[in-house]
Design brief:
mainly beta, Immunoglobulin-like, twelve-stranded mixed beta sheet, 38% strand
């Protein structure tokens, strides 16, 4: 397959032009030299999450810093309270925040994610023994479950974040929060 590089979407007057107008009447589902997923193919995100161990809550406690409400289909900002119950300090590596995904409370299945672009600088948060540190948290409610549509609907759901401690990844326990209507 040949790689075609063209300014897709830019017309003579700065307006948008469909790919058909630029490339002619052919299948435009693959305008990339890289193979994409086959129609109907899915990625089992739950299987990926199951490979990440749960956080040892006998040494580290996590919780939301107060009630959290996120507008359906959006990403909300909050804080994750991380308490070190151990005797040694811990360091949590982030990109300046941790991002939580949304789980269905009854089954624990992944139903929502954040689709916000994020930068990836290394920002470390130290948690001293018996101390608590607040870490910025994003919770995204864009749906990955086709039965829910494009957004996680209003209701009580669970947020779960991934923490990087000492070079290892861990999942927090599910934390209840509320998805609210846009109105």
């Amino acid at each position: 397959m040949a790689l075609v590089i063209a300014p897709v979407g830019l017309g003579r007057r700065g307006g948008r032009r469909p790919a058909r107008a630029i490339f002619g009447p052919r299948d435009h589902s693959r305008l990339s030299p890289l193979p994409g997923p086959h129609p109907g193919a899915t990625i089992d995100l739950d299987a990926i999450l199951k490979k990440i161990p749960a956080l040892d809550t006998s040494n580290v406690a996590v919780g939301l810093d107060g009630p959290l409400g996120v507008v359906s289909g959006h990403t909300g900002e909050h804080r994750l309270a991380v308490t070190n119950l151990g005797v040694n300090p811990i360091t949590i590596d982030t990109n300046g925040r941790v991002t939580a995904h949304v789980l269905r409370p009854a089954t624990g299945r992944l139903v929502g994610v954040s689709t916000e672009a994020q930068t990836a600088p290394l920002v470390r948060f130290d948690v001293l023994p018996q101390g608590t540190t607040l870490i910025p948290l994003w919770v995204g409610t864009a749906s990955v479950d086709p039965s829910l549509g494009f957004a996680v609907p209003p209701g009580v759901w669970h947020a779960q974040a991934e923490l990087s401690i000492g070079g290892q990844r861990f999942l927090t326990p599910p934390l209840p929060f509320e998805v609210i209507d846009r109105r």
